[in-house]
Write a structure and sequence with these properties.
Layout: E1 9-12, H1 16-27, E2 32-35, E3 50-52, H2 54-59, E4 71-82, E5 85-92, E6 98-100, H3 103-116, E7 120-122, E8 127-133, E9 136-142, E10 146-148, E11 151-154, H4 161-165, E12 177-186, H5 189-196, E13 202-209, E14 222-228, E15 232-240, H6 241-247, H7 251-259, H8 265-268, E16 272-282, E17 293-294, E18 297-299, H9 315-335, H10 340-352, H11 354-361, H12 365-371, H13 373-391, H14 399-413, H15 416-434
Parallel strand pairs: 1-2, 1-11, 2-7, 4-13, 11-18
Antiparallel strand pairs: 3-6, 4-5, 4-6, 8-9, 9-10, 12-15, 12-16, 13-14, 14-15, 17-18
Helix pairs in contact: 1-3, 1-9, 9-10, 13-14
The structure holds flavin-adenine dinucleotide.
């Protein structure tokens, strides 16, 4: 790598966390280098489609509105399925805090902004190892050469091959990962506005619960999503790797089931498939955060498992962690001390921020959803829809009798131990969230 200046920090990975970190270090007066394996920044990165702008505003308070967003998400929709019946809740917001955007556009714009401020990128370069000497990380080995710097920030995303290889993170168990598969489907902008009841550049996002398993199949921990772009919609499902391993049903089959649901079919009908892809997402949450700092090294973004899958938020947590690690790197560079004693400041700041506080709020939720997945993704969606069926069906049966029968049906259909386990689990999650 050609670089006349002394390298103060190496950042592995030009995703949102890595770029935010590099920019923060540059703004602190030092020279970071971002090493990225792809030949074009963001080109292989994939996500659902929405970015929550708070962290971006922190990085670019004056220019965040110029990001190449597709639509401003104004409608948040939550839909429960039971086969082809559905119940939806739609919330119309008036703020402009959530945008839909392409990852390649988002990441490359972040990189362009960082380059303008002097951050150096080495693209098309795979980092194959961290260089460790006397229990300190002192640089990286790429396919081409060894590069040394007093501090290395690992922002390599969820696969974390480098961290696993260096023994800095345990291999992820299937139950702590989700596989997300997503398609982009082309539709005319007017058609999107008509089908989703949107005006101009307004956008909509959907989260779907239930309806993905057939009778007698194990119920997966799985959720669907859909985001509107200017001329496309992005639709996908996230399925627990543990279920994929055991059920032997491909994630694309789940996605097909979602696309063929009577609620969704008319929304995407006639659209042209433009792209599809798959990527894994950390699901372990608060309990699976690895050690965030070592002598000479910090971990940011997905490789530190910083994803809030309850709200489908990852990018904003990645950026915030990058900013906080960048600030700690500047403190370490000012002190010329890269030991854990100084770098633990990153953990302290991250634990004070919304990133860890949110993950802690939901610390048992994913585990509970996995354990109680038959209840959450099959039984209760079915019962909620059954209730609405009763509520909207006038017939000769007195309503009081119908409500009573509905209530008794829980006792008839469920074992007492299942009902008790459901109630205890949900109360535990609620208490953990508020106390
Ligand atoms: C299907 C799906 C849907 C999602 N939907 C949303 C959503 O709607 N909203 C949201 O906020 N979040 C969403 N997320 C999560 C979000 O994409 C991530 O949380 C976020 O991208 C994490 O950023 P990062 O910088 O930590 O890692 P990444 O974005 O994964 O970036 C890591 C970078 O490191 C590079 N790299 C890796 N290894 C090396 C190496 N050895 N050498 C050099 N370079 C390397 C990669 O090429 C990549 O550019 C979704 C994720 C998935 C998979």
């Amino acid at each position: 790598m050609e670089n006349d200046k002394k390298i103060d920090a190496i950042i592995v990975g030009a995703g949102p966390s890595g770029i935010a970190c590099a920019l923060t270090i540059k703004r602190g007066g030092y020279n970071p280098v971002v090493i990225e394996k792809s030949s074009h920044i963001g080109v292989k990165n994939l996500f659902g489609g929405a970015v929550y702008l708070e962290s971006i505003k922190e990085l670019f308070p004056d220019t965040y509105k110029n990001f190449p967003y597709e639509r401003i998400i104004k409608k948040h929709n939550y839909v429960i399925f039971n086969k082809d019946e559905s119940l939806s809740v739609s919330y119309k917001k008036n703020d402009e805090n959530t945008i839909s955007i392409y990852r390649r556009n988002f990441d490359s714009r972040l990189a362009d902004e960082a380059k303008k401020e002097g951050v150096c990128f080495a693209i098309d370069t795979l980092v194959v190892d961290l260089i460790i000497k006397d229990k300190k990380i002192i640089g990286v080995k790429t396919e081409y050469e060894e590069i040394y710097a007093p501090i290395v920030i690992v922002a390599e995303g969820f696969n974390s091959l480098l961290l696993n290889k260096a023994g800095l993170k345990e291999a992820t168990e299937p139950k702590d990962a989700i596989l997300g598969v997503r398609e982009v489907i082309k539709l005319q902008s007017d058609e999107i506005n008509k089908r989703f009841n949107l005006k101009d550049n307004e956008g909509a996002m959907y989260e779907f619960f239930g309806g993905l398993n057939k009778e007698n199949e194990d119920v997966p921990l799985a959720m669907g999503f859909l985001y509107t772009f200017k001329n496309n919609v992005s639709i996908g499902v996230g399925v627990s790797m543990e279920n994929l391993k055991n059920n032997k049903i491909t994630p694309y089959e789940y996605l097909d089931r979602l696309k063929n649901n009577e609620f969704i079919k008319p929304l995407i009908e006639g659209g042209e498939l433009l792209e599809y892809g798959a990527h894994s997402i950390p699901e372990g949450g608060y309990k699976k955060i690895p050690k965030l700092y070592h002598n000479g090294c910090m971990l940011v973004g997905d490789c530190a498992n910083l994803v809030d899958s309850i709200h489908f938020e990852g990018t904003n947590l990645a950026i915030k962690s990058g900013i906080l690690a960048g600030k700690t790197a500047v403190i370490a560079l000012n002190k010329n001390d890269f030991s854990e004693k100084v770098l633990k400041n990153y953990k302290k700041e991250l634990y004070k921020s919304f990133v860890i506080r949110d993950l802690k709020t939901y610390k048992s939720v994913i585990e509970t959803l996995f354990k109680r997945r038959e209840s959450v993704f099959s039984y209760y969606p079915k019962k909620i829809i059954e209730f609405f069926n009763i509520f909207t069906t006038p017939d000769n049966i007195p309503k009081k009798d119908k409500y009573r029968n509905f209530l008794f049906s829980f006792i008839k259909e469920r074992k007492l131990k299942d009902l008790t386990a459901d109630v205890i689990s949900f109360v535990k999650c609620i208490l953990e969230a508020v106390i």
